[in-house]
Amino acid sequence: MNIGQEVLEALKDEITEIEYKRYIRHLTYDTKKSTTDLAIFYAPNALVVNWIKNKYNDKIAHLFEVKTGSKVTVQITLKNTTERKKSKKAPEVKQSSSLLNPSHSFDNFMVGGSNQFAYAAIKSASENPGKVYNPVFIYGGVGLGKTHLMQAAGNVLQNRGKIVIYTTVEQFLNDFIRHVRNKTMERFQEKYRKCDVLLIDDIQFLSNKEGIQEEFFHTFEALKGAGKQIILTADKHPKKIGGLEARLQSRFEWGLVADIQPPELETKIAIIKKKCEINKVRLSEDIVNYIATVIDSNVREIEGILSKLHAYSQLMHIDIDLEFTKNVLKDQMNENHENLTMDKITEIVAKDLNIKPSEIRSKGRSKNIVYARRISIYICRELTQNTMPQLAQYFGMKDHTAISHTIRKINDLIKDDMDFKTKIEELTNKITASA
Ligand code: ADP
Ligand code: MG
Asked: What stretches in the chain show pLDDT beneath 50?
C-alpha cells in the first residue's frame, strides 16, 4: 500500500461510509509525480474534484502530516485522459505541458456577445499560430473564461503535435528562481524559448517585478522573432496594469487585445447547461434559469453550485427540485448579495419602469405603480435578508400578512403571466449584476 492509499484508508475512519464510497474511493494517488511535499490525487470528474477539495482537502493534508511528519500540499485534479491516451500510442510524445485541462475545449466554451471577440481572437490564433495576431492578449474579470479559452487553444495545438507551455506568472517566476539558484539558467531559457506556443496566465502579476520582467521580455522577443504564438491573459488592459516596463506594455499591444465581459443571461444559461452535460447532472429548465439569475458574473461559481447540488442530493437521497435548489443556494446568495439593499433594488426597478422610487413606496394604486411595487417586493424578498415585517414597513403596508399575501399573488402571476415572469428575471439579473 502506498502512502496515498494509507492516508485514504485512515480518512475512511473519519467520514461516513456513504461519503467514502461516493467520493473518496474514486481517488487515485500518483506515486510518480507526488513528492515529499506534494501529494497528487486524481478524481474521475470535476464534481468530485470540487467536492473533495472543499470538504476533505484539509483532512487529507492533516493525515499526511500525521503519517509522514512533514507538511504536504494536497492537489486533487482531474485525470488527464487525453494525455493518457496519447502516451499509450506514442510513448515518445514531445515534452509538453500536462497542466492543460482537457475539458477546457472550444466545444465546451459557450459563445455570446460578452466573449465573442476574445473567442474569435483565440480561435484564429489556434488555427494559424504565430501568423495572424501575436501576441493575443485577453483581459477581463475573474471567472469569465480567460484561462479556459487560452487552454482551449493550447489543447488544439498540443493535439496537433506542437510543444505547448501553459504557465501562470507565479509558476514562471518560481521556475526562474529555482534555475537561478541551481545555476541552470540555460535550461530555463531553452525550455521557454524552444516551445511552439507559450500561454501565460495572469500577466498582471508581473507588475513591479523587474527581474522577471527582464527575463520575460527576452523570452517574448525570442519567441515572437521565431514566429511562435504567444497568448497572454490579465485582469485588465495592458495600459492599466501599471508597474510594467514600457517596452513590455507596448509589446502586449502589438498583436490583438480583446476583452471578456460578464456573460448575459442567455450565455449563463448555455454555460450551465453545458456544465450539466459534462458533469452528467440533470436539471429542469426552471432550475437552470434560477441558477443563472442567482449567480453573478463569475462563471466559476457554476461548477461549485452544481457540485453542491449533486453532492447534497446524493448524500441526502433527495431529488434536485427548485425548492431544494433554493435551499442549497441560500448561503451562496447571501454571500453574493450582502451589499444589496431595498433602496438599491427599488431604485433600479423604478428607473427601469420609469417611475419614482418614492411612488413604489407610496400607497398609490395606479396600475404601473402596483406593478412596480410587486416586482420590488418580490425581488427584495428573494435577494435580501429582510423579514416580512421589515418589508411591510419599508413598502408602507399594514403588516407582514399584507406582504405574504402580495408574495403569494406574485407567485401566481409568475406562473400565469410569461411577460411578468420575464420582467422579474430581467430585473433580478440587472440588480444582481449591480451588486
Ligand atoms: P478566468 O481565467 O477568467 O478567471 P476561467 O477560465 O478559470 O476564468 O473560468 C472559470 C470557470 O468558468 C471554468 O470552469 C470555465 O470552464 C467556466 N467558463 C467561463 N466562461 C465560460 C463559457 N463561456 N463557457 C463555458 N464555460 C465557461
Ligand atoms: Mg484564470
From this structure: 82-97
Alpha-carbon distance of 291 to 339, in angstroms, equals 19
The pLDDT tens digits for 181-209 are 999 999 999 999 999 999 999 999 999 99
For 125-190, the DSSP string reads HHHSTTTSSSSEEEEESTTSSHHHHHHHHHHHHHHTT--EEEEEHHHHHHHHHHHHHTT-HHHHHH
pLDDT of the residue at 78: 81
Say what the pTM is. Answer: 0.64
Looking at residue 93, what DSSP letter applies?
Answer: P
Distances (CA, A) of 322 to 266, 326, 327: 19, 6, 9
| 147 Cα: distance to centroid of ligand 2 (angstroms) | 4
The pLDDT tens digits for 46-102 are 777 877 887 888 889 889 888 888 788 898 888 765 444 444 443 333 444 457 888
In this structure, are residues 37 and 69 in contact, taking their beta carbons and an 8 Å threshold? no
Quick check: helix, strand or coil at residue 107? coil
Q: Are strands 197-201 and 73-78 parallel, antiparallel or unpaired?
A: unpaired
Mutate to test the pocket of ligand 1, among 110, 137, 144, 298 (most ligand atoms within 8 A of CB): 144
> Nine-digit cell at 85?
491516451
Neighbour order of strands in the sheet with 229-234: 164-168, 197-201, 229-234, 136-140, 256-260
130 phi-psi bin (left φ>0, alpha ψ -120 to 50, beta other): left
Per-residue pLDDT, 335: 64
Report which of 388, 378, 383 is spatially closest to residue 413, judged by C-alpha positions. Answer: 378
CA of 108 relative to ligand 1 center, distance in Å: 10
The residue whose CB lies within 8 Å of the most ligand 1 atoms, and thus the one to mutate among 78, 148, 155, is: 148
User: Ligand 1 centroid vs 31 CA: distance in angstroms?
Assistant: 30
